[in-house]
Amino acid sequence: MAAADDLPTYKDVADAAAVLAGVAHHTPTETSRTLDDQLGVSCFVKCENMQRMGAFKFRGAYTAVNHYLNDTDGKELKGVLTYSSGNHAQAIALASTKTLGIPSTIIMPTDAPTLKLKATQEYGGNVVFYDRYTEKRDEVAQKVKATLPEGTVFIPPYNHKYVIAGQGTVGKELIEDLQSKSIALDYLFVCVGGGGLISGISLAVKELSPKTQIIGVEPEAGNDAQQSLEQGQIVHIETPKTIADGAQTQHLGDLTFDIMQRNVSKIITVTDEQLVDEMKFFGERMKMIVEPTGCLGLAGLRKLVSSGEIEKGAKCGVIISGGNVDLERYCKLISSTI
User: Fold this and answer.
1) Residue-wise pLDDT tens digits, 58-73
2) Phi/psi class of residue 287: alpha, beta or left (left: φ > 0; alpha: ψ in -120 to 50)?
3) Which residue has the higher pLDDT, 2 or 183?
4) How are beta strands 29-30 and 79-83 bridged, if at all?
5) CB neighbours (10 Å) of residue 69?
6) Bridging pattern class, strands 79-83 and 104-109
7) In what order do the strands lie in the sheet with 187-191?
8) Which residues are the active-site residues?
9) What distance in Å separates the CA atoms of residue 125 and residue 64, rounded to the nearest whole number?
């Protein structure tokens, strides 16, 4: 079990919102009459694909870097190290180097999406590659950190108090925006990789809208979170092979698992084919480019509507986590059958 001092609370989410004010975008919540008619529910889509660098990850990255910048026990922050398949990589490079002027070193897999790699480098991140199928990134990170200046901090993609708190501002914004219109969500569907987004969002939702059920959605090929909640312990899997590169995690973190156990109602899975269907829907009907991982939430909602588990007329929130996808790959995915 995670140490109590390491676990974020709603207060940390509220503090993160203050830190991010004027720095991160307050992203819109969109609706679609076509979607509501198809599903028989009222759907509210939180568009983190419109966040800075194209994904929610900027929130957690900036919150964490800002924390170390202002709390280093008198030591100067000399650099930031992380690993990521793409969105957290971009977020750290943008928050740390481009925005705050602090050097960043990013460990990325050799098969990272070209768009995400290029953006990370353009934001000033120093990229180090590894093979995600034959090397363990924690071991690679230890070796790389030994070569960096003293005063370099490691900020992981999800299992970090201030990263989780920053991601939680997505939920805070969504609930407060809807409450200002007297709308209360019955369900909220959130994609799950390492659990940073859903655990952070759950802190805000349980504080501001405690009756809302939070449902996590994973790719069918990588259901470690589903297994973990069912078994009551963190389950490790091999790197899943799925088009949802943002959810190719092997396990939850102890912090995210602890929070999810308390706040998440259930975890469901969807296929890559279902993700492609939602990419097409977002593109054709809502005029948005959404990456495969960002489609997990809507695919999960559609699945539970089809199975009759979501009642007609329910008010349902969906988080789009990001929109960073190479256009060539995007076109191939939406024009072919997986």
Assistant:
1) 999 999 999 999 875 6
2) left
3) 183
4) unpaired
5) 16
6) parallel
7) 29-30, 42-47, 315-320, 187-191, 213-219, 266-270
8) 57, 85
9) 16
